[in-house]
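Reviewers of the previous submission asked for a worked example of the structure-prediction workflow described in the proposal, so we include one complete record here. The input consisted solely of the amino acid sequence. No template or homolog information was supplied to the procedure at any stage.
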Amino acid sequence: MNILVALDSNYIRPLKVMLKSLFINNEDVKFSIYLMHSSIIDEELNDLNSYVINHGSKLENINIDDSYFADAPILFHYTREMYYRLLAYKFLPENLERILYLDPDILVINPIRELYYMDIEGYLYAAAYHDIPSIKGINKIRLNPYEIDAYYNSGVLLMNLKLQRQCIEEKSIYEFVEKNHSKLIMPDQDILNALYSRKIKSIDEKLYNYDVRYYNYYKILSNNIWDMDYVIRNTIILHFCGKKKPWKKSYSGKFHSLYKHYEKLVFPDKNCK
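From that input alone, the workflow returned the following structure tokens.
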């Protein structure tokens, strides 16, 4: 299976935790981890490579030259790395037809085989949207006149690379950013939804992109079916969305202990920070 990650040195530690959860809960799978970056140093790459190899998988280093995105418009505190997952098909091997993109602030707590091999014929992506009515309404208004039925989260994306090579144009993305820069809040996610939402296959958020902030909401909505036991047994991907992250000392949340469990497997001697 092919996994795509895109990050800088600041996220290597949470990346290792995410990968540990992926490896442990998919022990029969050999992964090819494609790492897109522009600034990770050799020492960190070598360490990460050894880490992945020790888990029976391989790391593919995709170092993006800064000059490639030199003319790309950027916004606020966002860097040109915001384009990586949208234009990943340009940098990945031509023989790859699908890849699963994962954010580093994720835990994979059950096998991903069903997600990875689902039928995405005719779709650019498979992704989940967080069905919070107020948020959905705000994003529809904000991205008007672009018609979106749902606002998909870009933290978990099953990519149809074959179709993306035919349909996604770099120029169209840049033009969209130039034209709409004042209304973009999460640029890569806004681009994904405004330009491509009608070519995204919807997947169940509670299974494949469970926003840990909304545990109580999911539980109430499901008439108490989605309690903690049910989540642990059935959810595939937990996503620690938002500004507060579980590797920070100030974090407190429903799944903090579970994250600390995986973190300790990677960094057994790590002191609390």
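Strands lie at 2-6, 32-37, 58-63, 98-102, 106-108, 125-127, 156-160, 200-202, 210-211, 237-239. We consider this example representative of the routine output the project will generate in years two and three.
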